[in-house]
Design goal:
This protein is mainly β. The chain is rod-shaped and about 185 Å long. Helix content is 11%, strand content 30%. The strands form four sheets. Strands 3, 4, 6, 8, 9, 10 and 13 form a seven-stranded antiparallel β-sheet that branches. The longest helix has 29 residues. Strand 14 and strand 15 form a beta hairpin.
Amino acid sequence: MSIVGRRGSSDSGWSWSRPPSGPRRPPPAPPLLPLAGGGLIVLLVALALLIVWLTDSDNSSPAGAASTATPPPTATTAPPATPPPAATAPPTATPTPPATPPSLPPSPTPTPVPDIQQTIFRLAAWDGNEWQFDTTPEGAEYREGLAVPFLLRIDRARPGTAYALTIRYDCRGFDFLTIYDRDAGSDPALASGGPGSPIVDSAATIPDDPATPADDREAGSISLWGGSLTRVDAALPSTACTSVKSLPLGLSAAADTVFLMWAAQLSDTASDGGVPLRLAVRVPGGGELIIEIDPASVGPAQP
């Protein structure tokens, strides 16, 4: 039973009263939140102490003793490490080809140009007044027993070049070969188409033909302007005349134009043959230049 005291409003004294009678009031419940917080703290401290104790217990266990701790998981064998890819050699640098220059238009096909250095050979016969380069001299008058001058003119000759020639003549119409001025003097050398001078650059004696008695007293020769004679062979064949005889010779050019001169004596029967009296010169390359004298233009020998 409780007695309750109260002080008056004038603070002059206390008044005491007894609580009313009836059932006892239960004591007030303690606050739950502070109790729950304190319990949680106690639980955390106990857990920390347990962990410390377990840790100390592990460290103090003797070697080889079985441990009650959960064994660590079995280590899984790691797959072998994949080797790093082999280093690939850097590709060899291919040199860049030089830039191709732009193609040029095709050159036009050149027009063929005649070879201005081609050597020209011409054969002429003296008609008593001038040189005739025709195959058959026109209007010429000859006499048996006299020598007819002949001229081989070489134009566009190449200085230093050797030329092999062969004089071929009908030995029934011509007895033999001799010097060009024996019966005509120097006129053939001075005439147009000839060398223009009687002074020769080279001369060579014509060898005697033992099968021809008519040249026994003859001192014939070959004359040359614009070069030099290198040889004059004996007439072939060396036997008596049957139809044709040949006189091989050689010369070397020293100028652009070369003149070769000689004469052929007409036989005593030249006008009786009825066939042209032929004299020819074979030149390098196989060509042959021909002069044919009409027997009708040949008169009898002078008395």
